[in-house]
């Protein structure tokens, strides 16, 4: 349990201290280049493209998952402490909070003094045309992205990591990297105009079902307005995505503002677009919601750590991982590593 809590604490601390690594050095950007190479014409028919897209959605995210799990496994084999540090680095690289909040705050502040700067910076958060957006619409775009990315950029990788880490750090790192791979593929390929991205979009919808709703609950708690989640229900399904509407609508209700993507959706339509103060408050609420999410992850890790039969589950998962990666000889390596790790717990 202490190992898991230390790993989560280190990963969160790295995000708060460093933020996003440079793009050139970010593994998510490297995977993005792979996805970009896969975005091509695989078949002459739309149906063929969809079939190819399903294969890509299934197999491509396994690449970062295998690398992440293998790296943590190799580090753990060398020394349990090295394995913990490697797992923390993987979790850090698959989450994003500081950069999200800073960019959101920058956009909100710029809407008060320089709309052109705000329009330029908000492109780092949303993909819509920003050239004609008003100050309120720009703030809305930033607030929407902050709410949605709380789910995509933190909850979706942190919670499954917290559940699996007490059982197997390599498996936890692999799942976090896999989820980030699925999110990346959806963000790059999951458009209605791309038949090859249909599989990625559907898989992301499935993966994000729980994280989006958990993020919405965290926002309601952070805003000290738990009923906001219930009020948001009537607008949560308005956006085309089956998931993103939950955290966005909950934040709209908690702040009593209207969030709107022109021509696509309107959330909490009876309210006004966010003011400067509303935008600043949104950054604070999402930041507190991130704290709520981290606390929830810690609680989950503690519960799993106390689960009866954890030791046998840890051994079974570890042997399976090693057997898949390195065959039967690797199983004996895991057993020796487990014996050493037990002295550190």
Automatic annotation (TrEMBL):
Q: Where in the cell is it found?
A: Cell membrane
| GO annotation, biological process | cobalamin biosynthetic process
Q: Which InterPro entries match?
A: Cobalamin_biosynth_CobD/CbiB
Q: Please classify the protein's predominant subcellular localization into one broad category.
A: membrane
Q: What stretches pass through the bilayer? A: 49-74, 81-101, 158-179, 285-304
Instruction: Supply one GO molecular-function term.
Output: ABC-type vitamin B12 transporter activity
Q: One Pfam family from the UniProt entry?
A: CobD_Cbib
Q: Is Cell membrane set as a keyword in this record?
A: yes
**Per the record, what is one GO cellular component?**
plasma membrane
The pathway it acts in is: Cofactor biosynthesis; adenosylcobalamin biosynthesis
Question: Looking at the record's lineage, which domain of life comes first?
Answer: Archaea
Q: How does it sit in the membrane?
A: Multi-pass membrane protein
The UniProt entry's sequence similarity note says: Belongs to the CobD/CbiB family.
The record ties this protein, via HAMAP family, to: CobD_CbiB (MF_00024)
Report the function annotation for this chain.
Converts cobyric acid to cobinamide by the addition of aminopropanol on the F carboxylic group.
> Per its record, how is this protein called by name?
Probable cobalamin biosynthesis protein CobD
Q: Which organism is it from?
A: Natrinema zhouii
